[in-house]
Amino acid sequence: MTNIVLPVDFGDKTDQLVDGAVKFAKQLNGRICLIHVAPIDIGFAIGDMGYQYFPEVEGNEIRGELVQLNKINQRIIAQDVDCEHILRQGIAKDIILEYADTKNAEYIVMGSHGRSGIYDVFVGSLTKGLTKDSNIPVLVLPIHD
């Protein structure tokens, strides 16, 4: 079975990305390896006292993201595509490439919003980094408004 890594960020176009990945997986009789990478600084805030860490904020955020990930996982399975999921914290590009390696994935599926400017500096840089450093094909699906 073909393993397809699908990173998700829970943005407003996640459903379109998932739909495209499911269609691709069905064509290949593939299995989706769903991953969400949470930032490592999720519980930190800056204030008058400098940086402060709030573990309860981080815990709540991670639990909420895991609920969202579980919902996407169930949605994929409901469409008759095998799926597993994982939530990790760290630097997204590194974590995704490591996960693809451990899953012996044959593809990574990403979304492209077709935007430019400052948006691409932050969002497009992940796709660019993955396509540059990946040893496996990165399929970029067009996601439109």
Automatic annotation (TrEMBL):
Limits of the UspA domain: 2-142
CDD domains referenced in this protein's UniProt entry, alphabetically: USP-like
Domain of life: Bacteria
Pfam families for the chain: Usp
Family: Belongs to the universal stress protein A family.
Protein name, as recorded: Universal stress protein
Organism, scientific name: Chryseobacterium oryzae
